[in-house]
Amino acid sequence: MHSTTALALFATAFAMLQGVDARGDFSRSCTGYFIENNNFLRATCTNVNGGQVNSALNLNACIGIDPNNLVCRPKSSGNYAANGCAGCLIRTGAFMLCSCPGGNKIADLDECVANRNGLLACA
């Protein structure tokens, strides 16, 4: 049992060094983020050496649409923009607001996007 605990602690420490969170939380380590051309998130993110990296991510890879909201999706099943969402922009904090079929919809980008050593990635 002791080795299981040690392995779990090692895995947690390794994940922290790699900038991997289950939730994403990119906004904790990225600044100046904004949406460009409806679906590209651009930001300046800190890497593990403390350096700053300009990064971009096509949010269609991370976010899909359901009847009520924009939701985090696995990499190949997002594509909210192709499903009719437009005019997307950051409104408050890391929340993205889009005009979609059925009305405005919101995505919590901290749920869907992570900073992986300075590079934006789907969480």
From TrEMBL:
Question: According to the lineage, what is the superkingdom?
Answer: Eukaryota
InterPro entries assigned:
Cyanovirin-N, Cyanovirin-N_sf
Signal peptide annotation: 1-22
Q: Where is the Cyanovirin-N domain?
A: 26-120
- Can the keyword Signal be found in this entry's annotation? yes
Which keywords annotate this record? Answer: Signal
Under SUPFAM superfamilies, the record lists: Cyanovirin-N
- What is the official name of this protein in its record? Cyanovirin-N domain-containing protein
Q: Which organism is it from?
A: Coprinellus micaceus (Glistening ink-cap mushroom)
